[in-house]
Structure formats: C-alpha cells, structure tokens
Design brief:
alpha/beta; 4-stranded antiparallel sheet; 4-stranded parallel sheet; globular
Length: 496
Amino acid sequence: HSDGAAWFWTIVAGVHFELAEQPEVDMANFAGRPVVKEMLAVGLNLVENGTIDTLGVTSKTSLRTGDAHGSTSEKLSVVPGNLVNGVSFWHEGSVRVDRSAYAVVVLDGVLNLDPGKLSTCVSCGLCLPHCPTFRVSGEEAYSPRGRIDAMRAVESGELPIDKTFVDFMETCVQCRGCEPACPSGVQFGDLMEGTRSALASSKRITPWWQRMGFQVLPRHRLLLAGSSLLAVAQRLRLVPKRLGLATLPIRRPARLAATGSDVWLFTGCVMDAWQRQTHVNTAKLITAVGESYAIPSAGGGCCGALHVHAGLEDETRRLAADVMASMPGDAPIVVNSAGCGAAMKDYGHLIGTPDAVAFSMRVLDVNEYLAERVDRLPSMASPRPTVIVQDPCHLRHVQRVVDPVRTLLGHVASVVELDDDGLCCGAGGAYSALQPDLAGQIRERKVASIARATSRSDASLVASANPGCSMHLSAVLGDDLEVRHPVDIVADALGL
C-alpha cells in the first residue's frame, strides 16, 4: 500500500479498537419505530430533522453539525435512528464519531432529570418483554422506552405535562425489571423517581389523602391500631375485594426484645404491623446461626420506600435520616422486606453523604445474611417440602439477590422455579391499591405461571420475600397454595 493508504487504515484500525468495548447497536432496526425527540451534539450548527414520537406527535428536532475534534475535521449531521460515520452510543450518553466525543445535551426542563441518564436509552426495545404494563397492554406508551420518550419530550418543552403524561408515569409499577435487561445500563428507576418527584412537587400526583395515609406509617402505635381496625373490617366484609388485600391479623406476637449487638434487625412499619411473625422467625434464625440482634430505637420505624415511589422525596430523606440515627455503629443491618432493603441500600444515593453511603453498605437482605451462614443452621427436623420461588422485583431486579434465596430454601426444601423470568406480580408497594385493574391483569400472568409450576410438581407453598407481593398473591391463590416468606418456611421446617 502507499503511505497514504497505510495511514488511512491505521486510523480506521484505531477507531475500531476504541469502539470495540462499547455495545454495538443497530440504530436502523429499532423494533420498527422511529426514535424520538432531540439529540443535541455540542458545538454543531442547526439542522432540521423530522421525527415522530411514540405519542403520535410529528415534530421538528433541532440537531447541530460542526467541526469534529481530534482525528477528523469533517462536518457531520447526527440523525437519530441511524448510524452516521461509525457513531456508537456510550453508557454515559456520549456520541462518539471517529475519535471525537460529543456530549448529548438535553434542554433544561421542568422534570430536572439527569441529562446523561435520560440520553443513555438507545430505544433498542430489549426492555419490552420485561415490562409488566407493556405485556398486559401492548401499548408503547406503557413501556420503559415509551415512558423515557415522554420524559424527553416534556423535559425539552416540546410537550406539556398533561393528564396523558401523568397517566404514563403513574401506571408504571416501578418494578425495574427493565434494568437488568438493558444493554446500555439505563437507570430507569432513577428517571422514574425523579419524574414522580417533580410531579408530586407540583401536586399533579399523590393526592392529599394518599399523603395523609403515608403520614401514618412512621407513627407506629397509630399504624398498629389502624391495622387492627382494618383487620376487623375485613372480617365484617367492609373492605372492597377489588383492593386485593390479603387477610390481616387481628392479633400479633409480642414485640421482639434485643439479645445483643451482632446485627441490627430492622422491623419497619407495615412489615411489623401485618407480618410480625416473620420478624419472630428471622430472630430465631439469627439465633440459630449463633449471633445476636439489636432492635432499632424509636423513630426508625419507616424506611420511606412507599414515599419515594410516590415522589415524596423530601419526606423520604427525613425518614431515611431517622432510620440511620436509629441504628448507629457498624454492625450489619438485616432486612426481611425486599422493598425496604432496596430503599435502604439506596440511602447513599438519596442523601449523598459519606455517612449515608456507609449505612447503605451495611444493609443486607435476610436471605443474603442467612445464605452466608447456612452451614450453621441445624439439620432438617421434618420431610422436605416442595416450594415455588417467586422473586419480588426489588429483591431480584434492584438488589440483584437471586441465588441466596435458593441457597437458604435449598437447605430445607426442594425448589421449583417459575417460567416467567422474574416478571412482576403487580403488587408494587401501593400500586395494587392505586391501579387495581392493571395490577390485577399483571397478577393474572403471575398466577398462570405459578399454576404451571404447580402442575409439574407437588408444591403447596410459594416463597415470596416481600409483604406486598405475598399479600397480593394470597388474595387470589386461595387455601390450596400458601404464600409465605422464605424465613417462615425455613424456620418451620427446622422446627424452631
């Protein structure tokens, strides 16, 4: 080759090497629909490009072209939805053309979303099969991709915040099943929580009666009294069945007393009021592995998980500060509610202080804690039951705790897996009460998967490590198939 040709191929080889570690995305085959809205590259001249978003709004998208930096001086038009001169998309939302990096910038907007996180989505559609609302509705707007498109449109000012937009956001279960499936690492949970926070701040979601209900959660005596009254109302058939609420206990075991300081046992609000027996069994298993536990002081009774789902970010921070103060020191914090554990592991991000980061690193789901010590548990005291495992979304998708549940249950039981790849059951904290129709449709898919698992096994138990999931499923599964926390199953099997 000539010297010029050799130099050309050297540059090409260098570019390919640089892009090799980034995920390759065929931008021309985005599940059969055009990519939405803006993609602004820094330092570029205005070019008009027509696009169609998923809401059916035809618009003009402003793009820019300009001098490329580094190894090339070409002027390039970056068009959404197509590969242009070797463009690939970074996880952090940058566009790389040859050796040039242009940051993708989103116009300042009312949702105050992180531009990098918002631009990371490349609309590949791999999230769609893992989204429960998309699976039951078939609507693009009820998918993570459609919701992100709507966020972009509102954030850039191209669309207003109206009832349609609010509906798209409120109907999300926040299961975050899309996150493990995303090759670009889109932090959808952060985007949805940020959007809901903006909507709640402007009083567009989370009405006054819901906010008043959430104020009861950290007031534990009031919560216990109200839960007992609700349990009585259930017996009198005064609670609508459409709420999908499982039968609540009228009486509870005595509150736990601390036995030492090896670990903290977080008791929480709803978990203690509605499923205190699981706390009792957790305490028994902690003792069985040769360790002691402390109980949080007053004031740490609610982690704020439901509040952050509802967009009440300031209230969540106050509750998080109280929870952190209630469990000082450096001992591990054992949590037996998947939703609470996920929220507490996120305190470092939520509060953003070194103390909050250190606190979050101490939090362990009870399955994580016991799986590491399973060899210390006593041997079986009864025949091995067959158990179907239903993974709560905030355990499987958010905390990424999957194997420890099987390790713990496998000590005493034969484990049967579901065939739905961890699809959401529709509980979603308060979602089943606020969106009963969608929650019911999502639950039907989960129940069908459980029925298939039952048909190929002799299982009579379903293990679910979250109170919302277990109650949501118990409300329809009946007496033939009992839904219990893994801790309860293990403690009973061991005769503790």
